[in-house]
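ok trying again, last paste got cut off:
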Amino acid sequence: MTRKRTLRRDEFSEQDRIFMARALELAEGGRPTAHPNPYVGAVIVHGGTVLAEGFHSRFGASHAEAAAIASAREQGISLEGATLYVTLEPCCHSGKTPPCTKAIIESRIGEVIVAVRDPNPAVNGEGIARLEKAGLRVRSGLLEEEAVKLNEAYFHFRRTGLPFVTWKCCRTLDGRTTYRPGTRSRISSPEADARVDRLRASVDAVLVGSRTAAIDRPRLRVRSGAGTDPWRIVFDSRLVTPLDSPLVAENSDRRTLMIAAEGASSERIAEYRDAGVEVDVVPERNGHVDPRAALARIAERGIIEILCESGETLGRALMEEGLLRRVLLLQTPRLTERESGEIEAIEEVGPDLFISVGMSCRGN
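nice, full thing came through this time. structure:
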């Protein structure tokens, strides 16, 4: 059977765009519980009327297309000849759930409009091909940029083989990341901490360096409980993180991973592993863990998105290697623990930000 031509992205109506925009909106409902799977939404329409909707709600649950089809079935709605709008190419392989292409074909849907092809090698155009082979009309490319942006970490991982890394950097008014070097000091507000907590809940792993692990003694967990705790990763070339560190001692879920450099003590590696900590060894560069080799090894574990909460040493190393995809700069109006100002205005000046901070007087 001759494969049908996939139509160009400009062959869509305004109504098509409205329904796909709705599917993209639905996809957001899976954040953060669907990861490491992509966020996907689906809308089924016939004659301009929405028959059913669905989204991938959590890892292991029904995919968006199957959820929408099941919703229609529960309502006794026939989908024969309907159009399915879906934000990512339907899967055609069995994993935790059956292939969506099979469910779509059996539902007698007549047309499928896909926002973007799935770069997963297990799909990558094969889902579209199977639908077309079954006689369905398939169009793709509608709101493609928006669909890629929705799952930017997933697309980056599939296209490069490396995790999508965001560095969260918190600094004082005069550019420091701590009030007193070598000591633990919190410079962010409770509101900012809550925001970071939500970020942790949306990623697969949180990364710090050995200095942060030793001085700050972080737990790197989701404090609010609104999500699964991410992997906790430490770049520690010589494995100097104390065994009584919360990252080691409080590891009942066995989701702490130490990345050591070649030459690290085999006895030390054994101590961590005896404590239930995963240890991977990668090449060394300039006395530190080779960041590119480390991320490649982390990717082998299926870790797609990382929030780096380190200090400047690791953050800059990732930046210089071109491994950072985003930087989140948290600017506090404080100078010291006792001296603080108030941000009065933030103005865009060309590509820069002009920040006005009012400071209180400390006497005459």
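cool. Residues 14-27 form the longest helix (14 residues). DSSP finds twelve helices and 16 strands in the chain.
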